[in-house]
Amino acid sequence: MTVTFRSAPPDASSTWVAVVAAVMSLTEPAVAQPVDTGETLVAGPYISPVWTEDFVGSFQRDFNPTSLTVTVNGTQGGFDTAFGTNYNDTSLVDDVHPDYFIRADFAVSGTGDGYWFVGPKIGVGWSEEPNNSGWFENYVVVNSSFSPTEFHQRNLEQGATYLGETTQGCDVYRHYVLPFGDWTQFWAVKQSYDEGGVIMMKPILDFWRDNGLPNKMIDSLRLNIETGGDIDLAVTISGIILPIGFPSDPGPPPIEHQSISGSAGADTLCSAAGGRHPARQGRR
To answer: CA-CA distance, 218 to 279, in Å (whole number)?
Structure first.
């Protein structure tokens, strides 16, 4: 299977444009290595860590302060990397402003019988209990080789509890909580996959809080890529708005993610805003 997506960033508020301009002004060159050994790469205020489990194969990252391109050629095991940052502003989950958003485009192409998924990953409580027992590892899935229906079944088979749905703008997310080793995972899986775009974080975090996520410190927020099994994959993350902290007033969200409801033309508006896309059927 081959999937390729491209999109241009929407207009954002002046506050966020300023953030992006500041990041774009960084002059640090791209970080790339002839052989990627998996160490954490650093570019400006951002990092690209790697996690593997029983991984057999190779991978390569091209990382700079505005994008990350990853190629993965694996025959078995799990691989995980990201464009992200570790926060140091001691913000708690409840401190996140209602208008806080992130955005990114995920361009994905690949083949193989393995799996992949992409989207934000939020770490909560690691610094308070670094032995993992009180850590919450949380995922927002915006695209995957699993269809949304397959992802639902996969989560249930792994022991997750289905928590229900939330809607933000035109986007519907299904939520799950999963005991995982010594820690806990919350999941939000978008029901109409697309190439990414804008994600409002507060509605997702509030729903998780209502279902047991504690009000602990947010340790990290990353744009994540995870793969498993036999797969040849290339992913580029670009069009990124990922502030290195949680601003007290991030400005209004982009227009396509402000609520659209109560009108006969709501479906048309959602479609025009890019909020409804046919689900891309995945592979097991």
So the answer is: 31
Phi, psi of 244 (to 5 degrees): -90, 10
14-248+255-272 fold: Jelly Rolls (2.60.120)
Q: Are strands 101-111 and 231-241 parallel, antiparallel or unpaired?
A: antiparallel
The single residue listed with the structure tokens 């994905």 is 108
CA atoms 31, 35, 41, 47: torsion sign? positive
Provide the residue ranges of all domains of the chain, joining segments of one domain with +.
14-248+255-272
pLDDT, tens only, 161-210: 999 999 987 899 999 999 988 889 999 999 999 888 899 999 999 999 99
Distance of CA 269 to the CA centre of its chain: 25
3-state secondary structure of 46: strand
Neighbours of 210 (CB within 10 A): 11
pLDDT tens-digit profile of 118-170?
Answer: 999 999 988 776 566 678 999 999 999 999 999 999 999 999 999 999 998 78
Q: How far is CA 134 from CA 25, 62, 95, 183, in A?
A: 38, 33, 19, 6
Cβ-based neighbours of 207, under 8 Å, separated by 6 or more: 163, 164, 166, 175, 188
